[in-house]
Amino acid sequence: MQTPARHTPSPTAGASAVAARRRRLGALLLLCLAVVGCGTAPDARAPATAAPAAPPSPAIVVAAHPLAARAGAAVLERGGSAMDAALAVQLMLGLVEPQSSGIGGGTVLLAYDAGSGEVSGYIGREQAPAAAGAGWFDDADGQPLARSDAMLSGRATGVPGTLATFALALREHGRLPWARLFDDTIATAEQGFTITARLQRHIDGRFPQAAAEDVQRLFDDGHGGRLRAGDTLRNPAYAATLRTLAAGGAQAFYHGALARAIVDRTAAAPRPGAMTVEDLAGYRAEKVAPLCRPLRGYRLCSLPPPASGVGLLQLMALLDGTDIDRRDAGDPQAWLLFAEASRLMYADRDHYVGDPRFVDVPVDGLLAAGYVDTRRALIGPRAAPRPPRPGVPAGAPA
Predict the structure, then answer these.
(1) CB 53: neighbour CB atoms within 10 A?
(2) Is the peptide bond preceding residue 270 cis, with omega within 30 degrees of 0?
(3) Are 313 and 302 in contact (CB under 8 A)?
(4) Does some domain include residue 215?
(5) Among 231, 226, 206, 207, which Cα is nearest to 216's?
(6) N or C: which end of the chain has fewer CB within 10 A?
(7) How far apart are CA 73 and CA 86, in angstroms?
């Protein structure tokens, strides 16, 4: 689960027209926020950060699946924190939407403390194994692999960061004991849940990994066919993994039998990866300062590189200079503005944003008002005939 941005409102007042414009801007902001996101977990070996459970307060949990939202809400009802709930949501998503989310991926998180007003960032993106090389996704002739071939290989799997990220974040923002955050997902994995029509589409081959033998075994109906929408899916292996993690903390993922199993699986044919147990043992998530910029009386915060928060902030700045706030959500011109601004943002993001340990990312240049103005001027009344080229912000590598 990802928590990509946080905005802190300043006092405002105004006429209904202003309020309506702000509602439209807010709707757009929520749409933009959906572009970015992530989740991860804590270490049971660390001292429990169990503050006394506070009485439940009004709250809302939003997730891609009802069972995940309920798992998060249940944690809040038990006196857990928002970060506790985020981990519970992530664990459940790994069960009910395995094609989209899971503890074998990466996570970026923002945490907002309403009492202090402090925003904290946590980055736990997947990392390439130490032995990865420049031709990692080329075939024997030096040509790029087809996307489906690249994805169906151990080379497509980076060292996962989700659990390490949650472990780090929960040391500061957790309230309940680590093991209790696993209870609902373990029970659901053992008892089973109803397959949705969306999951069935993925079972039927909407994602390349559906062709993998172990994935096919998971969705086998026991009679030579595949499970269908309305059937019950149980995943006792996932439940067993979660029991190990609940008892041993995040370290149980990065060391020992689970780490060995991950390495063995990524080393399997047809294109073995090169992840090692040393890669897993050496993984570290990090706490970072958030990347924040003012916008219409708000402070909009996201994550710095290697996360794509700079893209989100640039997108909002591009749109801030248009008349999109005076257009209704159903106005085609509003969607054209959003689409064209997004194309400009992605051209810059894909060209400049990377791991700052290896590349210089011109964050300030990408967000500078003058540069954003020059990029916005490229947005015309009709869709551009071809993808835009990246710009040249201040600080761009030569």
Answers:
(1) 12
(2) yes
(3) yes
(4) no
(5) 226
(6) C
(7) 10
Question: DSSP class of residue 390?
Answer: P
The rounded mean pLDDT for the chain is: 86
d(CA 141, CA 136): 12
49 within a domain of the structure (yes/no) = no
Question: In terms of domains, do 247 and 100 share one?
Answer: yes
What's the pTM value of the predicted model, to 2 decimals? 0.83
The token pair at 341 is: 């601004």
Tens-digit pLDDT profile for residues 65-123: 999 999 999 999 999 999 999 999 999 999 999 989 999 999 999 999 989 999 999 99
Q: Are residues 178 and 247 in the same domain?
A: yes
Could you tell me if 353 and 271 lie in one domain?
Answer: no
Total structural domains within the chain: 2
Helices (H), the chain: 16-33, 66-77, 82-96, 147-151, 162-173, 183-191, 197-201, 213-218, 236-248, 251-254, 256-266, 277-281, 309-320, 332-352, 363-367, 369-376
Q: Please answer whether residues 363 and 319 qualify as being in contact, where contact means their C-beta atoms are separated by less than 8 angstroms.
A: no
Residue 175 corresponds to which tokens in the numbers above?
Answer: 């309230």
